[in-house]
Design brief:
It is a single chain. Helices cover about 45% and strands about 15% of the residues. It has about 280 residues and is an alpha+beta fold. The protein folds into three domains: about 90 residues, Orthogonal Bundle (Arc Repressor Mutant, subunit A); about 60 residues, no CATH class; about 80 residues. The strands form two sheets. A four-stranded antiparallel sheet has the order 1-4-2-3. A three-stranded antiparallel sheet has the order 5-7-6. It is globular, with a radius of gyration of 23 Å.
């Protein structure tokens, strides 16, 4: 773990519920917000932290293009949503270039369009950050600092010691009962570990692996992924994960246009849309 990443985490664990705003977590006063966000994303990739993001730049995708080309009065978008779609129809734009006001309403509409798969987030800004269970486990049980570091303040060291003490108190209950058998809590933890739900990163890797295995040339039909991951994931959980990957520009979702090559069951595995075919093909960026 790099020194700046460690400082980021040590600042985070000083916050209530191990959650804070990105601007509060700069490793030092000279660290820029873009650099702090880059550190945060690196930690997110390793599942040590998670974060909430807002969209700052948008681009239209195939489903959105299909919608604005439909000559109909009764479209499944309101006037402002259509205005946003048309504003980004030919290029990537900033949110304020949509000319929709007020800003709060505009951002809510943009988030809604992204959730419905009509636009893609071309750039996002991290707002809130929180420590994951994996991050707690690494800090409390696995991390072992090495080398010489003369810039780690006593305040940050105090954050770490406070975290360790709190974690120690939370784990005071013995995992064994008086007769030496595992407690019910430990048994439940073991059972839970057997039904591990994959992270977004693991889902993306599964898509890559399936595409390579099946030779679908980065055009993987979604039913293959459902066969692989449902269960442990529910249909909604998988759909939500795919939308998140799309917003992070790690994945594209494409509509099914010609259904003759697939069975009804395979077609129903797609993500239904109000206009056009279901989102059916997965393409890794």
């Amino acid at each position: 773990m790099e020194v700046q990443e460690l400082k980021f985490l040590l600042k985070l664990i000083s916050k209530d519920n191990y959650q804070g705003k990105i601007q509060e977590l700069k490793p030092n006063s000279k660290t820029t917000i873009p650099k702090t966000q880059s550190i945060c994303r690196n930690l997110c990739d390793r599942e040590l932290v998670d974060c909430s993001e807002t969209i700052t730049k948008i681009k239209i995708n195939s489903a959105g293009k299909a919608l604005i080309n439909i000559d109909a009065q009764d479209l499944p978008v309101n006037a402002d949503e259509l205005k946003i779609l048309k504003a980004c129809a030919t290029k990537t734009i900033k949110n304020n270039e949509t000319k929709v006001t007020p800003a709060k309403k505009r951002d809510e509409l943009i988030a809604s369009l992204a959730e419905r798969g009509l636009i893609t987030a071309a750039e996002t800004k991290i707002e809130q950050v929180w420590l994951t269970d994996r991050g707690k486990e690494v800090l409390a049980r696995e991390y072992s600092p090495k080398g010489v570091n003369s810039v780690l303040s006593l305040n940050l060291l105090n954050n770490y010691l406070s975290f360790l003490r709190k974690n120690l108190r939370a784990n005071q209950l013995s995992p064994f009962t008086a007769n030496g058998s595992k407690s019910q809590t430990k048994i439940e933890e073991n059972n839970s570990s057997n039904s591990h739900k994959p992270s977004d990163r693991e889902i993306l890797q599964t898509i890559i692996d399936l595409d390579s295995e099946l030779g679908t040339d980065n055009y993987l039909p979604i039913f293959h992924l459902r066969d692989k991951l449902q269960p442990p994931l529910s249909r909604k959980e998988l759909d939500d994960a795919l939308y998140r990957l799309q917003r992070q520009d790690k994945l594209e979702l494409s509509s099914l246009v010609e259904a003759m090559h697939y069975t009804n069951e395979q077609i129903e595995a797609g993500i239904p849309q109000d206009v056009g075919g279901s989102l059916f093909f997965l393409m890794v960026n």
